[in-house]
Amino acid sequence: MAASLMGMSIRVMTYDEIASEMGLKPASARQLVRRNGWHRVPGNDGRTRVEVPLDELERHIKDGAETPVEAEETSTADAPESPFEAPLITALSNHIERLERALADAETALSAAAAERGEAQLEAASAREASAQSRAQIDVLSAQLEAAERRAAELAEDRDRWHAAATARRSWWPWRRTG
User: Fold this and answer.
1) N or C: which end of the chain has fewer CB within 10 A?
2) Mean pLDDT of 133-147
């Protein structure tokens, strides 16, 4: 309002509008408003309105049109190398090539290690399966062994009983036998 009282023409804009008009980011537009001390008015919609002097707006628009960002980037890329930069660029390029070769070797080693890991996992799975089969076979054989030991114990008892009956002393008189 102070600018309008002094006879300067102003335009009321939001931060986003300022950023788009001047080719800035919204954070840069906020900083520009703070730096220049332009009057800010909070709006009902939650957006802040800024009174921007038209001469400042026109100056920033002209500055942005005269030096586009792409032109600045291409001008620095086409700049001739100084004699001090050439060996440095060559050394860095060689170092980058070495690093790329090392990366390719590491990726090859990684893929080989992954393949070996896959093979080892398959071998481990087959070994676990064989171990499970062996355990099942051991359980069956243990049950058969226990059954055979029980049968052997029964036969030993039967043998001992018959041996005791055969070796028991008998009287020579058949009618005097008891039992």
Assistant:
1) C
2) 97
